[in-house]
């Protein structure tokens, strides 16, 4: 497997992490995950826009232009030869003797990896299981920080009950999945948590709201709701770059709707697949 370090293609077996990299010691960094379909990066611009926002919020200087970041993606895709893949990009604040406050004159460090990735169409067709878990994360979930312990604990807790995804609850309100956004279909209307510091503004979420829902004539309500409301929904699903759109047909012991992916979710999946083909080709 290959990766990229500050613009240079490397073998992943090369030992490149420095012990005093702040990403390694503090989780002081940000990341993005972008899908590659048909050898082409999907929705790269919104992902990189969000990366720049995360960097700004953490006062990490943006060293690379969008064109440079795009060319790094292209190079990894070309060198790997993968047509369907996920590119992971992370930028840490850089290397310095350990101290909590940001040291001066830091040089951020960029690392990227590429791995084959394919959507689980079988699970998408049958529907997956979810599990409600407490949202124990910090109050800046809008920053795509590499500090993911809260998300990891949620996913692990879900996994231990056999769930595909954990659906997090904060102060009685459903926020989002551990690595996805959460939607419900109630009386034919899409509901999801509003953009705030409590969720990550998913690129897939934005595509659903701005592109797919209008195309399908669906109304979207961006408003918080509780667990009981979610369980009364006809349909529920999670969305994310790797997950795409995944129906949740059971959450904990409860069956959602008739226990199969519903018509709205199925139409959204179809529209999403068409959108990917329109951007990346078949
Ligand atoms: N919410 C969280 C906490 C995530 O980690 C992710 C993706 O990794 C998402 C939502 C979905 O974001 P996107 O659609 O941009 O992949």
From TrEMBL:
<dbReference type="InterPro" id="IPR050571">
    <property type="entry name" value="Class-IV_PLP-Dep_Aminotrnsfr"/>
</dbReference>
<comment type="subunit">
    <text>Homodimer.</text>
</comment>
<dbReference type="InterPro" id="IPR043132">
    <property type="entry name" value="BCAT-like_C"/>
</dbReference>
<dbReference type="InterPro" id="IPR036038">
    <property type="entry name" value="Aminotransferase-like"/>
</dbReference>
<dbReference type="InterPro" id="IPR043131">
    <property type="entry name" value="BCAT-like_N"/>
</dbReference>
<comment type="function">
    <text>Acts on the D-isomers of alanine, leucine, aspartate, glutamate, aminobutyrate, norvaline and asparagine. The enzyme transfers an amino group from a substrate D-amino acid to the pyridoxal phosphate cofactor to form pyridoxamine and an alpha-keto acid in the first half-reaction.</text>
</comment>
<protein>
    <recommendedName>
        <fullName>D-alanine aminotransferase</fullName>
        <ecNumber>2.6.1.21</ecNumber>
    </recommendedName>
</protein>
<keyword id="KW-0808">Transferase</keyword>
<dbReference type="InterPro" id="IPR005784">
    <property type="entry name" value="D_amino_transT"/>
</dbReference>
<dbReference type="InterPro" id="IPR018300">
    <property type="entry name" value="Aminotrans_IV_CS"/>
</dbReference>
<keyword id="KW-0032">Aminotransferase</keyword>
<dbReference type="Pfam" id="PF01063">
    <property type="entry name" value="Aminotran_4"/>
</dbReference>
<comment type="similarity">
    <text>Belongs to the class-IV pyridoxal-phosphate-dependent aminotransferase family.</text>
</comment>
<dbReference type="InterPro" id="IPR001544">
    <property type="entry name" value="Aminotrans_IV"/>
</dbReference>
<dbReference type="GO" id="GO:0047810">
    <property type="term" value="F:D-alanine-2-oxoglutarate aminotransferase activity"/>
</dbReference>
<keyword id="KW-0663">Pyridoxal phosphate</keyword>
């Amino acid at each position: 497997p290959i990766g990229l370090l500050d613009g240079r293609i490397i073998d992943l077996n090369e030992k490149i992490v420095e012990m005093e990299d702040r990403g390694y010691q503090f989780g002081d960094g940000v990341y993005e995950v972008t899908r590659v379909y048909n050898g082409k990066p999907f929705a790269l611009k919104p992902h990189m826009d969000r990366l720049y926002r995360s960097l700004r919020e953490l006062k990490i200087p943006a060293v690379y232009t969008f064109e440079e970041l795009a060319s790094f993606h292209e190079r990894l895709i070309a060198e790997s030869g993968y047509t369907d893949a996920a590119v992971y990009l992370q930028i840490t604040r850089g290397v310095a003797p350990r101290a909590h406050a940001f040291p001066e004159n830091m040089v951020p460090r960029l690392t990227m990896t590429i791995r084959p990735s394919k959507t689980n169409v079988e699970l998408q067709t049958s529907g997956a299981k979810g599990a409600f878990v407490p949202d124990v994360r910090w109050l800046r979930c809008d920053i795509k920080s590499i500090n993911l312990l809260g998300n990891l604990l949620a996913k692990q807790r879900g996994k231990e009950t056999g769930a595909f995804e954990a659906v997090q609850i904060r102060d009685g309100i459903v926020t989002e999945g551990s690595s996805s956004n959460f939607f419900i279909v109630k009386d034919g209307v899409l509901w999801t948590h509003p953009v705030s510091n409590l969720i990550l503004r998913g690129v897939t979420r934005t595509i659903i709201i701005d592109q797919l829902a209008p195309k399908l004539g669906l109304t979207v309500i961006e408003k918080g709701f509780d667990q009981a409301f979610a369980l009364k929904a006809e349909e529920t699903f999670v969305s994310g770059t790797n997950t795409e759109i995944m129906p949740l047909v059971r959450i904990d012991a409860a069956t959602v709707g008739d226990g199969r992916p519903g018509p709205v979710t199925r139409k959204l999946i179809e529209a999403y697949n068409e959108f990917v083909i329109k951007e990346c080709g078949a």
